[in-house]
Structure formats: C-alpha cells, structure tokens
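Task 17 of the worksheet. Students: predict the tertiary structure of the chain below and write it out as structure tokens. Keep your answer in the requested format; marks are given for formatting as well as content.
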Amino acid sequence: EIAQCLVGSEMCIRDRVTPGSRISSSDIMLIASLPVPVVVLHCELGGIGISAVSDNPASGGMMAASCLIRHGHRELALLVTEPPSDSFDMRCRGFREFAELSGARVRVIETGIHIGESYRGICYQALERHLKEHGRDFTGLFLGSSSAALEVYKFFSDHKIAIPADVSVIGHDRLASNEFLSPPLACIGTDPEAVSYTHLTLPTTPY
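Model answer:
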C-alpha cells in the first residue's frame, strides 16, 4: 500500500510496505511515471533518479552506542526487537561495531522474532532467558526499536532492576509514548517527513 499526501502541486509518497519487505520494481516504475515531483520516505533507493529521504540506519546504532559509552558504560547489550531487514540489520551492526571499536563489549540478546508472528511478550521472555543464563552482565541496553520499551521496563521492574541506577536504556525511534515511561525513554530518532517537506520547497533535482 502506498499512501499519497498532496502538498500544493507536489506529492509526497510514503512507503507503507510490511517491515522487512522491499519496494518493488513496479512501484518504482509507477513513481517515476507520476507527473509531479515525488519524494519517497523511509526507503533507500540509491542513485536511480528518484528523490528519497530516510534516516541512516547504521548511524542510528552508532549514536546509541556513543551515548551509552559517553555516560561511562562499557558492558553493553543489544536487544533484537524486530525481524531481520536491511535497515534494522544496519542499525544493529552500527551499534555493535562502534561499541567494539570504542573498547566496549556487546552482548546480543536474540528474540527470534519473525515477520507475521505476535511480538507480545517476546522481548520480556528473551531478557528473562538472558538473565537466567548469564546474569545481568550489562549496564547499558540498546533497544533496536522503541516499540519494545514498555515490555522492557516491566521486565526490569518485575526483577527489581532500577533504571537508570542499575541499567541505562536507550531506544531507537521517537514514539509519543516514550515520554510517559518512568523514567522517560531516551531515544535516537529522526523525522524524515519534516526533512522531505523542506526539500519539496527546493529545486526538483533528485537527492
């Protein structure tokens, strides 16, 4: 499904495909044939002559690692909160590589999430398995996506692990619910929509 939003005489198209899937060649042909300037959001298109705005997945992970390390953490963990996809895998790789190059150690906590499965409770269970098998061997935790934050906060509360006294948590993606957690969830995030609307006011050379 591709949702269209008219902005004056220009058009902004948002990629609404299922997480982990890719925009198809027929989608590209449709977009290229439209008679108005087009910006594609949340999708890496490369140099094919169609303007696109998206965040840099690897840099998001790197920024999260940098934040934790700046606050003195050297024992880190990455919670895999989404199914594999190009963008999510780059985010996780950016976190791991930056942390390890900075002298920190990273434990990857796998959840086994697959596309189409219910995510309910899966992050809680993954943290519980890790705690039983390894103990709390990290002081800083990166949530691959902030959507798992409520579940993660409940896990730490149930196990008497205080945030941020015992473990610092940082997420990816700015969700409105983040600020209602206690303490509010710090997160890495961008606003590609705002960037795209800014660019729509500029000359229509692809970028």
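Marker's comment: The chain has six helices and nine strands. The two ends are 24 Å apart (CA to CA).
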